[in-house]
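Lab notebook, bench 4. We co-purified these components, and the gel suggests they stay together. Before we commit to crystallization screens, I want a quick structural picture of the whole thing.
Request: model the full complex, all chains together.
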Amino acid sequence: MSLPNQEETVTADTFLRGLWDENPVFVMLLGMCPVLAVTNSAINALAMGLATTFVLLCSSSLVSLFRKLIPKQVRIATYIVIIATFVTIVDYSIQAISLDLYNALGAFIQLIVVNCMILGRAEAYASKQRLGATFVNGLGMGVGFTIALLCLGGVREILGAGSLFGFPLFAENFQPWVVMILPPGGFFVLGGWLLLFNWYRQRRERKLMEQQGASAHGS
Amino acid sequence: MNQSSAPQTPGLVAATPSFAMLRTLSLVAGLSGLLVVLTYQITLPLIEENKRIAIERALFKVIPGAVSRRDFVATTQDIVPAGDGTDAGTLIYAGYDKQDRLIGVALEAAAQGYQDVIRILYSFDPSCQCIRGIQVLKMAETPGIGDKIAKDPVFQENFVELDARLKADGSALANDILMVKHGTKSEPWQIDAISGATISSRAVARMLNDSAQQMIPKIITYLDRLRDRGGEKE
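Here is the predicted assembly.
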């Protein structure tokens, strides 16, 4: 087990991967339950994103610190206990900050425990990497997740309620598309964003292939 | 995957390092317990304060003009000031104006709505024997449809002066509080439903009727005790 080769040195890419190439929502499609459920307004999306980022950062860091102590037979149990601890902390903290926000997010705060993005990071990254790299990567993933949630929440609030962060955007005779803030709206908007992302990615890859010439097979 | 255990116990792969598992799990569980208890201790006063503010805000909204409040508990036979060790019963919030006169009594009511239980706070004004306002505390009604019960101005008008007079013997309401179809309200004890949100509207009517039938006779019986703040001097 040659450790130095496996461990990643911290580069800008460690952080940026979470935002774009490995975006947890738009590319890896992880943690769909909160993505669809709480993004009916921009402020809920932001709060959920920040709460998830906090849990992701803290639990990944702790897993990374303990990575040599955790026997592989009990690793999932250990990760879940660590994640659940930070989720409980977030749960209490949100109640202390604002009850309105707590009521709006409902059961989805507790459900961060089973967000597969967080468990996935612990298993695939934090358990193998040093604290620094884990922290930076987790921050990137968390910010990527928050941005993705905001993309959904923003669009859904604008179309479904005619406002953004609670500020009305349109004149009075704007008829909101109520379906957008209902559960189906989550699927519509997520589908729209995925379409956009994949279209952009394919276009970029096609251009790359054209530049490399006809002989290139592409990747 | 097997690199870590293979060098230590080449011939005994099945032998699980029980001690290591025990050590790690206890360590993590201990740390987790410590963190959770610490957070709980720190946030508890803040959360209680938030809950108190939320109730108070709703309270002063349903009893317009109230500046102070006193909590009472309605037990099966009696109404006593809250906090005297007899907390088993329904909470009643009495609101007073600047001259310490009782201007309204707020009560909680709940019933099953379209998706989940709806909890509201409503106020009863003894001077007109009517319900003066409702405030939704908790609901999970459909956004844009059922959740109009909280904000819709036409629906809220039902509760400006909703009749809740008692029968002559004081045992129950003279007229049941009822929901009627949108636009057909003809009596002061009827609630005009929101068009398209009949189930949520009916839930509000039902919870008001259930709670009022039970509580208002008691409030009227012990009105003097509520008026003099339960004998408390401030």
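Chain B has five helices and nine strands. Worth comparing against the SEC data before the next meeting. The first strand of chain B starts at residue 68 and ends at 74.
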